[in-house]
Amino acid sequence: MIHTNKLKLTLFFFVLLVNLNLFAQDTINLYDKGQEIFDIMLSETPEKILHLVAEDDLDSKAAVLESFLKVREILKSTTDLKNYKYFNTVSDTAGNIYIILENKKKFITLKIKMNKQGKISSEFKIIRGSINDSLALGKKIYQMKCFSCHGIDGKGSLGPNLTDNYWKYVNNEQELFSAIKNGRKGTMMMSFEDYLTPEELKAVFLYVKALNGKKVPNAKKPEGKKKKISLHVY
Ligand code: HEC
User: Fold this and answer.
1) What is the pTM of this model?
2) In 79-213, which residue ranges form alpha helices assigned H by DSSP?
3) Which domains does the chain carry?
4) What is the pLDDT of residues 160-190, one digit of tens each?
């Protein structure tokens, strides 16, 4: 019997793979559930996975299963999932999905191309990096692109303070990433998608996460609502 939470996560992951647009609507934080997702990835049989897919017709079910198995095969053949704790996935407008595995020291990003039918193509790229290098890169980018509005160490200026637990519109990890990637229409917060590579976006995202919870003198007063958005700070 598969645990309901696990079931929801699995479905969510499948839905994500099949229909990227649904991604932003779900609030389940995949990042926290790394181990559970890795368990599913490593051990569930195709029959069980097929059973979990929330698609009605057989063709869609089969397509989802195929995508999942392909991702699993790539991940299994290129990395030891047991060494990772956190799981995250993001997408870009060019139809790439990035599956990010992290532990406290390093991360792996698997970049997969989706074809027009929403299936995973066999094209993929693995990007490996160290969290420390990435944080250093994130800091550099922050100083170049974000500092002017969010202040020294994220203390806030024209833009909100990024060190407190108050968020204007971010509710979870994914939304934090997309706040940076997509910006917010009608405000000064612009989209950085065209100005930063996925690796740079990821680095600045990690850096912003690390800023949260820092005590910075003369920080701007909190804006928005107090929310626990499950940030892992390294
Ligand atoms: C031109 C000014 C400006 C720049 C440059 C800028 N921001 Fe912002 N940012 C804002 C404003 C203003 C908001 C609040 C928007 C609103 O009111 O909804 C914001 C919101 C945010 C939020 C959401 C905060 C919340 O409370 O929900 C994040 C995260 C963020 N910015 C990160 C960044 C990062 C990372 C960079 C650099 C890559 C950056 N910003 C660059 C002005 C800016």
Assistant:
1) 0.69
2) 131-141, 147-150, 173-182, 198-211
3) 4-130 (no CATH), 132-226 (1.10.760.10)
4) 999 998 999 998 877 898 899 999 999 999 9
